[in-house]
Amino acid sequence: MKGVGRFTRLLPSRRGGVVEPSRLRRRDLFAESLAGITQRPARSALTSVGTMLGVGTFVAVLGLTATASSQIDERFNALMATEVTVEDVSHTRTPFVDLAFPHDASERAERLNGVRHAGVLWPVQLNDERSVRSAPIEGTGGNGSLQVVAASPGVLSAAGADLSQGRIFDEWHDRTEQRVAVIGAGAAARLGIRTLENQPAVFVGDEAFLVIGIVADVQREADLLLSVVVPHATATQIWGVPRGNARMLISTDLGAATQVASEAPSAISPNHPDYFKAVPPPDPRTLRTEVSRDLDQLFLLLAVICLFIGTLGIANTTLVSVLERTGEIGLRRSLGARSRHITSQFLVESGMLGAMGGLVGTSLGVLSVVAVALVRDWTPVVHPTTVAAAPAIGLATGLLAGLYPAWRASRIQPVEALRR
């Protein structure tokens, strides 16, 4: 048996009637461990696959998290930092005011420096949400659970609406209370409206609205894609003044949102600024920190689970190896190897396999991050600390996985092993 001859130097000898304890030098320890690995290359390779997958996943997940976090940060900066919402809270101040926004609230807000677009909107309270349909007779044509939104002309511009067909309504439509509507792409699909060439209409109860535009996408207020948007003066004339659920959507220049939020209530109603509650965008630094921390914790948990699975794989394979090599262990013990020598040998073997899997997994993980970033046109981000720590984690995983099999191997008695 290869490697057993190295233990001949461990044979106990007698000097003056005292048996000297056997010794195993470090060079022999590593040589024996390496021989144990190379004697069964296929099994050794399969054993290291567990660590390779675990460490590779560890590096890939952390790298992808860092890459995705940087992209999320940019998107939050671009959209959320330029949005202000002004809520109508007049019903909490006095029961005699139904709608605190004056009819020219949008124009007043748009006079503030830094404001691009502003508009007032509220959801129309319907008795039956399914009363929205594309045919005058109920039960015919397309219909669906759609909401009707009353909005001033500036709302769709503030929401960053992208039209696929037609146009949005303007001040003239609103001032003259025209029965027109702009519908979202989702609402159009549910109503079966694909083109505006035949001048389709939507029916809300018994009221008909000519569809003049279809919104393909919005940057804000995603609910508008499943809504029928009508002029707010028309909605007030038909369904009355809303109470307590109106708000204003304001889009601003980058960096102006906080100032606009502080000035908007007084600009809209100098006599009663307390009727409004302006909601500024969240602090970008706080938001970035919270999002990054949540993502880090989530994906770190996934990486730990992957490592745990890899550890179980190494432990199982090493334990099987101990059972297969019982005869070899018994022979080594009979030649003078001590229990700690057997323990050290199996620990070094599992540690070497873990380190090898860690190195290969680190390389695969980095390549995965770079590949995903190239496909998504992102900037790959892999922290040097992660790359440096991953092989060490693989080594630690291998050592941890080898503890129990090594202990089992050290407990095998020579006589018992040779009987098998």
Topology:
Elements: E1 14-15, E2 18-19, H1 26-38, H2 41-79, E3 83-88, H3 105-110, E4 115-123, E5 132-133, E6 147-151, H4 154-158, E7 162-166, H5 171-175, E8 180-184, H6 185-191, E9 201-204, E10 207-217, E11 227-231, H7 232-239, E12 247-252, H8 257-268, E13 276-279, H9 284-324, H10 326-334, H11 339-376, H12 384-410, H13 414-419
Parallel strand pairs: 6-11, 8-10
Antiparallel strand pairs: 1-2, 3-12, 3-13, 4-6, 4-12, 5-9, 7-10, 8-11, 9-10
Helix pairs in contact: 1-11, 2-9, 2-11, 2-12, 9-11, 9-12, 11-12
Describe the structure.
It contains 13 helices and 13 strands. Strand 9 (201-204) and strand 10 form a beta hairpin. It is elongated, with a radius of gyration of 36 Å. With 420 residues, it is of the alpha+beta class. Helices cover 51% and strands 16% of the residues. Mean pLDDT is 79; it is low at 1-14.
Distance between termini? 17 Å
The biggest sheet, with number of strands, parallel, antiparallel or mixed sense and barrel status, is: 11 strands, mixed
Content-based structural category: alpha+beta
DSSP, total strands: 13
